[in-house]
Amino acid sequence: MTTKKPGHPVRGSNTGRPIMVLMDVLGQRWALRILWELREERLTFRQLQERCDQISPTVLNRRLKELRDLDLLDHNGNGFGFTDQGKELGQHLLALNDYAQRWADRTQKTKE
Amino acid sequence: MTTKKPGHPVRGSNTGRPIMVLMDVLGQRWALRILWELREERLTFRQLQERCDQISPTVLNRRLKELRDLDLLDHNGNGFGFTDQGKELGQHLLALNDYAQRWADRTQKTKE
DNA sequence: CTGATTGCTACGTTTTATGTAGCAAATAAT
DNA sequence: ATTATTTGCTACATAAAACGTAGCAATCAG
After folding, report:
1. Does domain A18-110 have CATH number 1.10.10.10?
2. Which residues contact A58 (CB under 8 A, 6 or more apart)?
3. What are A25-45's pLDDT values in tens digits?
4. Secondary structure tally for chain A: helices H, strands E
5. Inter-chain touch B27–A29, beta carbons under 8 Å
6. At residue A103, does pLDDT exceed 90?
7. Which residues, by CB, come closer than 7 Å to strand C?
């Protein structure tokens, strides 16, 4: 796995601009979901698997590694969870949840 | 392509909870990036391709279709761009950009 | 020392994305 | 009217990513 951190190029951007790095990681399957499931409590590898609809361990492991490399998640005796850095990102996901709710209300009203 | 809108099941969630639908879509390759590139101005299909590092038309078309189905993007004589619904999501991406910047500053300080 | 749990790897199959070519419709230029 | 361009998009063969299942070494509990 190639190094992936702010300041380094990622797929589709050689500038290493932080937002590009972040979108590159979050745009991978299950990344957002993993962060979402950790929003309230730390979870073990297998707990995460369950919550993420039995995601394959291959991918889960890969994502966890990436997210830890980026200092968004860490791992201790209580399982995987946010770092201080990551907590702030978790807040954004909560905000996104609020948005999603309103978006759904409005969208469902017009279409079906 | 299967129907994808709030209220309908998505990969890894049969509840159809809006956040799940949103994460399912945004977690696909290039989805976040496409929204990001449209944050300031409308762009044509080919302009989007350029901005997104020459993303293949197959995927670009697929994403645009999904994002339009979800009422996040639309298309008019000036190209593709946000709907009113989508604009709000765009704001969240801008917030994410601010976060990414601070995250990068802090992370780069500690790791290389 | 036995059994369960935890984090993780191997590996063959399926799904998704890539890259290149090109087409039909709309617009602009000659 | 007739080219030439631009635009949105599809076809299709190749490559990359994710899936699903099995299982292993390390830790912890009984």
Report:
1. yes
2. none
3. 999 999 999 999 999 999 999
4. 5, 2
5. yes
6. yes
7. A 11, 44-47, 56-58, 61, 64-65, 75, 79-80; B 11, 28-30, 54-59, 62, 77
